[in-house]
Amino acid sequence: MDTSYESRNLRVEVGSRVVLDGVSFEIGRGEFVAIMGRSGVGKTTLLRVLAGLIEPSSASDVRFQGDPVAGPPEGVSLVFQDYSNSLLPWRTVAKNVELPLEGRLVKAERRTRVAEALEMVGLADRADDRPFELSGGMQQRVQLARALASRPAVLLMDEPFGALDALTKADLEDQLLDVFAATGTTVVFVTHDIEEAVYLSDRVLVLDGAPARVEAEITVESPRPRTQIRTRESPGFLAARHRVLEVIFGTS
Ligand SMILES: Nc1ncnc2c1ncn2[C@@H]1O[C@H](COP(=O)(O)OP(=O)(O)OP(=O)(O)O)[C@@H](O)[C@H]1O
Ligand SMILES: [Mg+2]
Fold first, then answer.
1. Tens digit of each residue's pLDDT (9 = 90 or more) over 111-124
2. Of 21, 123, 133, 208, which sees the most CB atoms within 10 A?
């Protein structure tokens, strides 16, 4: 498998607490992997390791495209849950999306990238608005556009739709799947919503335990493109959901 990430024996200590231990997995290029698990289990911690923001213990071996992760890898973009705090209120939508490109690309190329990214998330007509003029779902789409503008090889997403209502969440899931299909970007998506994890992903990694490890890896045998009604009623979706529920709640 052409891999994006390989983690062998990942161990992370935060203060005196061992949060992750013996965490091993691979993520293929162009794969959509969901990371699931209870609140506090260590999902964000794992994502921060992949983003190069936390250094694991020395025996851990975490690689991005074959090289050990040491600091934020080139080609990896992060999307956080808290969209309202991650956008600069005094900048327009376009200027927010442009931010990470400043100093890296010439102006004309930045403009092209910003227009492309806003188009991808359906906000081309809101480029000149300020973030506070947008709904929560739109603000989260701006954050996604900002991550996409650098044309990343990998998107790391930490419960990006957690704060949204169910209908907006469904819309954004579908938009993300469109972007995923159009760009071939690898996506690592943290969520504690079981249905969301299964709906979006090729594979679900369930973290459990204290310290946490990968308790199960569940492949979602559901064809793409996926749609909210047909996919959620399909045998592949239901089988994967069943399996995730079993891992989390036991079989009794
Ligand atoms: N900066 C920190 N200082 C101390 N402990 C921390 C810190 N960050 C995380 N932890 C601890 O690490 C563990 C895992 O936290 P983490 O944020 O990774 O969980 P999570 O699975 O993302 O939870 P949630 O679903 O609530 O976001 C928790 O026990 C938490 O208390
Ligand atoms: Mg978290």
1. 999 999 999 999 99
2. 123
Is residue 22 domain-shared with residue 125, that is, in the same domain?
Answer: no
Q: Indicate which residue's Cα is closest to atom 18 of ligand 1.
A: 42
CA atoms within 13 Å, Cβ hemisphere of 124: 9
Is pLDDT larger for residue 85 or for residue 186?
A: 186
Given ligand 1 and candidates 21, 44, 158, which is best to mutate, with the most ligand atoms within 8 Å of its CB? 44
Domain extent for 141: 83-151
State the pLDDT at residue 1: 61
Clarify whether residues 173 and 140 are in a common domain.
no
Q: Is the CB of 15 under 6 A from ligand 1?
A: yes
Atom 10 of ligand 1, nearest CA residue: 14
Are 139 and 131 within 8 A, CB to CB? yes
pLDDT digits (tens, 9 = 90+) for 51-62: 999 999 999 999
Compute, in angstroms, the gap from residue 59 CA to the centroid of ligand 1: 21
Task: Please state the separation of Cα 154 from the chain's center in Å.
Answer: 9
The atom number, within ligand 1, closest to the CA of 42 reads 18
Task: Give the Cα separation of 176 and 171 in Å (integer).
Answer: 9
What is the 46 CA–ligand 1 centroid distance (Å)? 10
